[in-house]
Amino acid sequence: MNTVIGSTATRVMDVAEALIQQRGYDGFSFDDVARAVGIRKPSVHHHFRTKADLVATLARRYTERFESSLAAIDTARRDPMARLEAYVLLFATTYAKDGRLCVCGMLGAEAAALPAQVADGVADFFRLNLDWLTAAFRDAQQSGRVTTTQGAEALAQLLLSALEGAMIVGRGGRSSVGPAAVGNHLLVCLSKQGR
Amino acid sequence: MNTVIGSTATRVMDVAEALIQQRGYDGFSFDDVARAVGIRKPSVHHHFRTKADLVATLARRYTERFESSLAAIDTARRDPMARLEAYVLLFATTYAKDGRLCVCGMLGAEAAALPAQVADGVADFFRLNLDWLTAAFRDAQQSGRVTTTQGAEALAQLLLSALEGAMIVGRGGRSSVGPAAVGNHLLVCLSKQGR
DNA sequence: GTCTATATACCGATAGAC
DNA sequence: GTCTATCGGTATATAGAC
Question: Whose CA is closest to B109, among A55, A183, A96, A21?
Fold first, then answer.
């Protein structure tokens, strides 16, 4: 009996995900994953034929989990601003765990050097987020909680960019400021009260 | 007589800089640089003993050039909003050239896996930018062009994060939206007119 | 499903000739 | 300043035994 939770394939994805968030696609190897999981390198290949397979699968899982979180926010919150604040919290929670970056933020930076199937998965993540945020900002504007004349699509791009960028600036600048502070400051600026 | 402009060391840095902006620190090799410059791998080592030396030197040059650009903006523009718009243009110009990322944005994402001397250079870049932006936003607030109640330091973090993030979201999401659009939208939201 | 062993290629870096 | 040759290490990936 093994006390480690989850199948080997799941544990491989968990470890690879954390390594990508800290070091990027080119910054980790199958051997790194194998050591952390407690198996040998060829055993990793048994579960994922290539590195591209592993990361593409892992990116899809990441996006699906995000999709679930967005659905949960829609269910739990009615107020548009509360939904946007909950969205910021998704990024803040990731970053709070050892300064981990968004998986697709890290991969997005490396997109020009990624296998096509991985880059496709990254694009899907951003599309999902922008669509959800656009709807959320449209609601916020219609309810009068956000009064800028900017379009909802532009506000979605702005918030997503600010959150992804805050992780990188926070890490690179060794700052205590992260996506939580940056995201909430932006929401205050956009809301009626911030003026 | 050689028609290529600049010393070999300069050309090595130019090529390495472009490779970092497209692929990141772990995404290029001395051999890649050598081929592009038209020399052999050991000749690159003659100019820069290690990869860390090369990238740290290149990052310093990048920051110094940015510092010159900021000084030029201060000289050419008096209006605080015009200065901020010119700042956005610095990122937009970089991104407009084949979708290149900010050197220190890319390296910032990889910071956890970088040699110390490189990570130090990245932190210097962000510190320089945040200091300049903080002063610019303070001026903009004192002149009444920016009326949010948020502190200038927070607004500096917000704009820098939005610009760095816009490059990554634009690249990863294969979007036509980049730092120019995102940065200018933010400035409109923060300015008196945008309300 | 995991292992040992291995193929093949590339990495950063160095020695030493020209 | 550039080269050929090479070192030692590691990368992704596969073959085949258990």
Answer: A21
